[in-house]
Design a protein that fits this description.
The protein has about 750 residues and is of the alpha+beta class. The chain contains 12 helices and 46 strands.
């Protein structure tokens, strides 16, 4: 019985570009990965002024402003102006690692003041005060530490805070004051104050670790003692005399940073430490902040990530009280946001009912040391995922969020009142995927919407559903490229679970067993690849592969995200077997449904978790003739503690699980031709993974190809590196699958 069924009216095979007497453009790796790609580079770093009047962003190409300029758009009139030129925003040269972090984590280079009249310009550590009315920038301080110094205005806009030499500083928000206060006053490289280390940045999605009180009188910050955290060497072998950057990186079972939360006066003085029942060097503090000027909240996540405890603490004494606990027998969802809508009510996200939803709680925050949170209501419910909380309008008592409730393969922007009524969809009814950022007054929002093979359009919208485009990318069809629409497939896992897939077939492929097939899954947790969303350069590379005669199949296996708690938790204590079973089951169903696919010419490739998956698949199955593993984790003992222990536990307790998932252990079983790829400066999945895999292959007398990218981080970013890499991937499949 055939179990592959189209789920949307996409047609069997649809060419978006009709045949003409003129030759169609041919896809090239160089065109796909040039700056901005063929469709153009949309603006970035969107920020709203605190009064909601202006939307600011950095221009990336000449379709909207001059590249690099900071532009402002009046929300009421749509008037576009240059707020600051590229020259005023220019930054000193930064390292490959800092470039990668700014791109991957959306680190801003400017910040609005609460008065909506000034900006902080952060140019690699030089903090300047920019006056919007006069258009002049004046240097306030030079931190001397490059990017990542997290400057902020106090709520009253009279002071600026920033980080330098692992300490938290405050200075007057006036030019050339030459007066600063070191609030934390610690020494050494292992003790940090208000900073965000790599593992908190990557795995807990922390973007800042200090915050001003609402009355501008105090700051609350996270102090981390990393003295017991092992260090990993990141060598730069390019210079004549090599250099080494030592990175604090806790691996599974290692001591974590010993963290604590402190409260200090903005004028300086002794820090009051919040008293928490806490396992130092083990547990995490993913979120903390102010409830009001007298009370802070702190979340504590246990090391096994099965318990998330929320405390209220008195800012003066530091005494705390547990008000809420969320638990899971396997592991908790990674949504840690807490939003106090006022001093007595707060919102959290949880997947306790099987899907991630919003919950409203009440608490008497005026008595933080005796308070107990009570559930007021589950604000959203149903067979769908609340993906992102976007904000709360206190005047209208309205919550804004995105969810996939209309279709598991796409999403929309929604609003609902705090009492659970008047739920409505705010984004366009056009199919696709949306991301939004609301103005502080919640009268407008920007909607970034895209769909499969439809590049992201950025629009300014209001709550009446009226939208006007800010940025419209080039259409692929208008550019003259031949574009083939992938088919969306509905498949079945061995237990009957629905799996969604996407199959791209080359044009005119009808003869039996005439088309080689490439699988390109991610496979890992908390990700969803098969969506009606713009996929950027990866999606265009699939088009290039189809142009070269390859079919491309992507399937979201059990253990991935976007489908609820039970679907994702198939990955618990299992980083290989169930995922590969689903990919092979999907492969068989696709081969059955599409006889033009050649079962004897199948390839597999992936990046990061997908790179590890490639190695695992080629070692545990003989179905794949060729593969490419980019930046793979080859033994999860090598990866970071937070991510790995969430799913696999501690190595000392689960050695057999780690061994079963380690591709180094099964190197002798490799089938097919492998290309192994890694950046030597990868601070996420360290080069040690590929070094260990090479040794295992050598000891087992297994041939393989290796491609290293000097100094490149996990993203292997940059035109030269990307074009070289993807031409190598194309060559690998041309050579071994044709």
């Amino acid at each position: 019985m055939k179990t592959v069924l189209p789920v949307r009216a996409l047609g069997a095979l649809l060419l978006l570009a009709t045949a003409t007497t003129h030759a169609q453009k041919q896809w090239t790796v160089e065109d796909i990965f040039r700056n901005g790609g063929p469709t153009g580079a949309g603006p970035r770093s969107f920020e709203w002024s605190p009064d909601g009047r202006l939307l600011t962003f950095l221009a990336a190409d000449d379709k909207v402003g001059k590249p690099g300029d900071l532009l402002s758009l009046e929300a009421a009139t749509g008037k576009l102006s240059v707020l600051a030129t590229k020259d005023k925003l220019s930054a000193a040269p930064i390292s490959e690692k800092d470039k990668d972090h700014r791109a991957r984590y959306g680190m801003p280079s400017y910040t609005w003041a609460a008065d909506s009249r000034h900006l902080i310009l952060d140019a690699s550590g030089v903090i300047a005060l920019y006056d919007v009315a006069s258009g002049t920038a004046t240097r306030i301080v030079d931190t001397g530490n490059g990017s990542g110094d997290d400057p902020k205005f106090s709520p009253d806009a009279k002071s600026i805070s920033y980080l330098r030499d692992h300490n938290l500083f405050v200075a007057p928000a006036s030019p050339n004051s030459h007066h600063e206060i070191n609030l934390s006053r610690t020494t050494g490289d292992a003790l940090t104050n208000g900073e965000v280390d790599w593992v908190y940045l990557e795995e807990l999605e922390v973007r800042s670790n200090y915050f001003w009180s609402p009355d501008s009188q105090h700051l609350v910050y996270l102090q981390a003692d990393e003295s017991k955290v092992p260090q990993y060497p990141l060598p730069d072998l390019n210079p004549t005399h090599a250099t080494v950057d030592m990175q604090r990186y806790p691996q599974p079972g290692d001591p974590n940073p010993a963290v604590r939360v402190g409260i200090v006066a903005a004028k300086g003085g002794k820090t009051t430490w919040v008293d928490l029942p806490f396992s130092a060097g083990n547990d995490y503090i993913p979120r903390f902040g102010w409830v009001d000027a007298h009370t802070v909240y702190v979340e504590v996540l246990t090391r096994d990530q099965k318990h998330l405890n929320l405390y209220l603490a008195d800012a003066k004494s530091g005494k705390s009280h547990l008000i809420l606990t969320d638990t899971d027998a396997k592991y908790l969802d990674t949504n840690y946001e807490v939003t106090f809508v006022d001093a007595s009510r707060f919102l959290v996200q949880s997947w306790r009912d099987g899907h991630t939803h919003l919950y409203l709680y009440s608490v008497d925050a005026t008595h933080p040391l005796t308070a107990v949170a009570t559930l007021t209501r589950q604000l959203t419910q149903g067979d769908f995922e609340v993906q992102q909380f976007l904000g709360f309008d206190p005047k209208a008592q309205t919550v804004f969020y995105t969810s996939n409730e209309a279709d598991p393969l796409q999403n929309a922007v929604w609003s609902i009142q705090l009492d659970g009524t008047h739920k409505q969809r705010l984004s366009s009814p056009q199919p696709g995927t949306h991301f939004a950022e609301f103005a502080p007054d919640f009268k407008h929002f920007i909607d970034m919407s895209g769909a499969e093979l439809k590049p992201t359009t950025i629009s300014l919208c209001d709550l009446s559903h009226a939208c006007s485009p800010i940025y419209t990318p080039h259409s692929l069809a208008d550019l003259g490229y031949t574009v083939i629409q992938p088919q969306t497939l509905r498949l079945k896992a061995s237990d009957g679970t629905v799996l969604y897939g996407s199959l791209l077939l080359p044009a005119g492929a009808t003869s039996p067993a005439s088309v080689p097939l490439i699988l390109n899954p991610y496979g890992g947790t908390h990700a969803q690849d098969v969506r009606n969303a713009w996929g950027g350069s990866n999606q265009l590379f699939d088009q290039l592969l189809a142009q070269h005669g390859f079919a491309v199949l992507r399937v979201d296996n059990r253990g991935m995200g976007g489908r609820g708690r039970d679907f994702e938790q198939f990955a618990y204590n299992n980083f290989g077997a169930v995922q590969l079973e689903d990919q092979l089951t999907a492969l068989d169903q696709a081969l059955d449904q599409f006889p033009q696919l050649d079962a004897k010419r199948v390839g597999f490739w992936g990046w990061s978790w997908g790179g590890a998956f490639t190695l695992y698949a080629m070692e545990h199955s003989d179905r794949f003739k060729a593969g490419v593993a980019v930046a793979p984790v080859t033994d999860f003992r090598n990866y970071d503690s937070i991510y790995t222990e969430r799913y696999l536990g501690l190595p000392a307790n689960n050695a057999a699980v780690y061994d079963a998932d380690a591709t180094t252990k099964a190197a002798a079983q490799l089938h097919g031709k492998l290309l192994l790829v890694h950046g030597t400066g990868d601070d996420n999945v360290h080069l040690a993974n590929s070094i260990q895999q090479q040794e295992a292959f050598i000891n087992a007398h297994i041939p393989f190809d290796l491609q290293l990218y000097p100094r490149k981080t996990h993203s292997i970013a940059g035109y030269d590196a990307r074009t070289h890499l993807f031409n190598r991937i194309l060559q690998q499949f041309e050579t071994n699958l044709k």
